[in-house]
Amino acid sequence: MKANATDAPHPAPAAALAPDQAVTALYQAHALGLIRLAVVMLGDRPAAEDVVQEAFCGLYRRWHTLSDTTKALSYVRSSVINGCRSVLRRRNRAPAGQAGDRPVESAEAAALVSEEHQQVLTAIRALPDRQREALVLRFYLDLDEAGIAAAMQVSRGTVKSTTSRALAALGRILGEQS
Amino acid sequence: MNTIEDRIRAAARAAADTVPQDSVPPLRLPPEQGSARSRPGWGGWARRLTPLAAAVAVVVVVIAAVGIGRAMHSPADRAPTTTSGPGPVLAGPPISSYVSSGQVPPYYVAITSRGNPNLDPSYAVVKATVSGKTLATIGPSVAGGTILAVTAAADDRTFVLDEQHWSDSENQGYGTRTFYEFRLSSAGRPGPLTRLPMIVPNGQLLTGLAMSPDGSKLAITVEPDNDKNEPNLTTVSVYTLATGAVRTWTGNGTIGTIGDDARSLSWTADGRTLAFDWLSASGPQGMGVRLLDLGASGRSLLADSRQVVSAAVQAPDATPTSTAPVSSVPTISVPAISIPAVPVFARPTATATATDRPAVTPSAASSSSLAITVPTCQQDSIITPDGSAVVCSAIATVGMKITASGLTRGAVTEFREYSAATGKITRILGQWRFASVGALSVEVLWSNPSGSVLIGVIPNAAGGRVGVIRGDTFSPLPAQVAGVSALTGTW
To answer: Which domain, by its residues, includes A168?
Structure first.
């Protein structure tokens, strides 16, 4: 089963709309799924919303340069993934002990996620960028290798090996914790 | 027991389900679509191979935590500044005066694309610094190629292009790289392309390249085993172009943040030191700018280099930003308490009260929405050619507010120079305040020998502006001529 919202039906043909209308329509159709994707990556709802907003603003700024607007969703999904990567790297840059070195997950959200899930999510977020992204795209969005390769902008071979390594690493982390 | 895959699926869906269906905030588009149409060169900036570049350029923001409160540092700890705090951008002399006096090189090479650089192949253009006119266009050496990056020698005549086969698929980051050198005539006309002997094989990730100032060497950094057994392994190879000889250093970590980054490496003029942005595989304490001693006999990247600027401890060493005299400038202290990051699109809920403000006082802040940060260096710092300092560009968001018409924000910038000997801040250029900005663009593109004159990017209402920075003055380059922005310029 695929995750829902990022696979929502495409809005009206983008070419028929003004850029702001086209981007807004795309946002309305896919924002929920992309915010959820970013929340899985980041564990931080406000940051997830910011990443998605910025991704769509970036798409809007570049709309006139898109030679194929049907690739807009692929573009904005890649932007969200890369935006999440930037957020996580900024967190890693924070001085030790300050708020930036950990997800600022809200108490409300944390309460809705069981300890088991929190443990798995924490382990996923501790993985290197590409490993984390490969796992989330594979097991949350249920993308196939080609789709993951497109979103991560790597080769299919890289997807396969990265996913394999990520699963092994995650198993080790969770094994050590349990 | 559930498989690991099942556990991932369940955990991810649980996290996703914390976002209710009816809770998506409205989209707030920036107001500059019209200007975007008039900025055909924006794609050139974004062309750095992948949307990651665009994300880095646009989302450059904000440190993770901000110290609150003030502390008086000892004079030795204070950062000498050219100003007493962020102020307006002061107009500098015309670019022509810089070029005619030999302070700034007359030509640059930029990378651009006829469409979206993520979807269309790119090529190089030679431009005049003063007029912005395109003097020549240089396509890939072979049909079906794309040019990804360019690096220059100090003579402003010798350039190397980084090229690979173009594919409209997703594999641009891992294709085989080839390298071509060309020279400009005194009139800025390019000679023939000469293929250089090295390649970066298919499957390896090129993370940095930089030509030595005398044009005799090319430094290339690669993650050679990125998708197999050693994802953290980085190699730095320095090729002697005349002989093909190569020296290689290895270490566990990452250089730069994007592929084909011609700004993640920089040389000193004597060719003895290579500066690089480094993220250690061991964690954030190892993130910063390191200087590799090219005369060292070893092969260990870390043993033969030393860290000059640590990104992890930047915030407590943040620069003075008040209007107080230098002798009594308060600086941001290591915080007794901290507040979370304020991302680009801050939520309406204030993260700090007005009384919590550090020295940075947002000029356009509303009481209902404040983004208070201190400037933080972005990636791609460079070493000055004389080897005295590492220059980084820093930016912070101030005065962010959300109104009925959308989000507005201001910014403060600094171009900091850290002593290569001590790691202390020795000079700050471009300490400016911007009431309203679009993208949070800031970057150092070029430095004169001592770092007293820079070419850099500062924010404006759109994607940023390139110009010459000296003290607190800024002399803008012609914004866009013939569809190519100077934002990707290499001098």
So the answer is: 113-178
- The average confidence (pLDDT) of chain A is 74
Q: Could you tell me if A167 lies within 8 Å of chain B, comparing CB atoms? A: yes
Chain B residues with beta carbon closer than 8 angstroms to that of A25:
none
Q: What is the DSSP letter of B333?
A: P
Residue B434: φ, ψ to 5°: -120, 125
A178 touching B (Cβ < 8 Å): no
Are residues A1 and A79 part of one domain? Answer: yes
For the stretch A155-176, pLDDT in tens is 777 778 788 878 887 887 887 5
Position A108 in a domain: no
Task: Please answer whether residues B432 and B413 qualify as being in contact, where contact means their C-beta atoms are separated by less than 8 angstroms.
Answer: yes
Contact flag B338-A75 (C-beta cutoff 8 Å): no
Angle separating helix axes A145-152 and A156-177, nearest 10 degrees: 90
Tell which of A1, A36, A93 to mutate to test the B interface (max B CBs under 10 Å): A93
Which of B489, B488, B479, B486 is CA-nearest to residue B35?
A: B479
pTM over 0.90: no
* Complex ipTM over 0.85: no
Which of A103, A134, A162 is where one domain is finished?
A: A103
- Chain B residues whose beta carbon lies within 8 Å of the beta carbon of residue A56: 27, 29
Q: Which residues 78-97 of A are in CB contact (within 8 Å) with B?
A: 78-79, 82-83, 85-87, 89-96
What token pair was written down for A166? 């990520």
* A18 and A93 inside one domain: yes
Domain count, chain A: 2
Residue-wise pLDDT tens digits, B157-178 = 999 999 988 765 444 567 899 9
| Residues A129 and A149 reside in one and the same domain | yes
Higher pLDDT, B455 or A4: B455
In a domain, A175, yes or no: yes
Question: Is A29 part of any domain?
Answer: yes
Of B238, B277, B237, B239, the closest CA to residue B261 belongs to B277
A1 touches B: beta carbon within 8 Å: no
Interface test with B, best of A153, A159, A177 (most B CBs within 10 A): A153
| A68 and A123 in a common domain | no
CA distance B171 to chain A (A): 5
Examine the pLDDT at B186 and tell me if it is beyond 90. yes
User: Interhelix angle for A45-61 vs A72-93, to 10°?
Assistant: 130
Whether A85 is in a domain gets the answer: yes
